[in-house]
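Pilot study result, target chain (301 residues):
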Amino acid sequence: MRGLGWKIFFAAQLIVCGVWAEGAPRDISYTGAAISAFIPGGGQFYHGRYISGGAFFATELTAVGYAVYWRNEYNRHSVETSRVRGIADSLRLLGAAAGGDSAIMYQAGFFSVFADRSGFEADRARYTSYMGFAWAAGIHLYSFMSALELGGFTPRGAEKSPAKAGFLSAVPFLGLGQIYNERPGKAGMIAMTQSSLAVMSYTNHRLMTKASANYNRMRDPESEQHAYSAEHLSYWRSQYDRVFSQRNTFLWISLFAYLYGIFDAVVDAHLSDYDERIRVGPDLALGVYGSGAMIALSFNF
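Predicted structure:
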C-alpha cells in the first residue's frame, strides 16, 4: 500500500469515525504526506521537524535491514535443511531396501534430528524477518499519518466525547479513538505498535507450537528419533521454554499498548477544547537571523 493507498485507508477511517471537518476552509498541505508516502520522515523534514524526520528515516531503514538480514538467514537455513533432510530420506530408502537394516535406519534418524533442528532455525529466521517487515510497515504508516497531521489535515479545538473516544479506541490496530480526536499521528503510532506486537506474539506462538511438536515426537517410543532423546530432547525443551516466555512477554506488552491506546484517547478527548495539547519532545529548527543562519534546538513540555 503506497501513496494513494495510505490516503484511501485514512479516509476510510475518517468516514467510520464521522469526523470530517465542517466550516470555513483551512490551509491544508498534502505535500509532506505525499513525500512521507515514499520517503520515511520526508514529510517531517518538509515541515521543519528534522529530529523526528531523521528518527523515522533511521528506524525504518534499520527495520528493513534487520528484516532482510533474517530473510537471508532463512534462505541459508532452508538450503541446509533440504540437504540434511535429503540425506535422511536417502538413508531411509536404503535401509528399507536392505530389509530394515538397523544401523542404516539409526543413521537416518540421526540426520532426521538435525534436519528438524535446522528447519526450526529456518522458521525462527523467517518469523524474525516478518517481525522486522511488520515494524518497517508500521513506521512507514506512522510517518505518513504524522505528516498528515503536520500538514493541517485535521482541525483542532472541537469538543470531543471521552466515552466515544474510548469506545472507538477499543477497536484494536486502527487507532480509531485517536482519529476521532483528530490526532492522526497518534493513530499511526497506536496502529504501528499494536499491529507489530501482534505479529511478534503470533510468530512466537507458531515457534512454540513447532518446538512442542518436535519435543513430543522425540519422546514417542515409536519415533525414529526416540533413540536420540537423551542427547537432543533438552534442546527442544529449551527452545519451547524460550519462545513460550517471549510470546507471553509480547502478549503482556500488547495488552499494555492496547490499554494505553484507550487511556490516551480518553485523555485527549478531555483535553480537546484546549488550544495546545500536551506535547513532550525535542525539535530542531533552521532559520535566518539577520545576515546569517540560525540553528535552534528546543524542548517542549
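One observation from the pilot: Residues 1-25 have pLDDT under 50 and may be disordered. A full batch analysis is planned for the follow-on phase.
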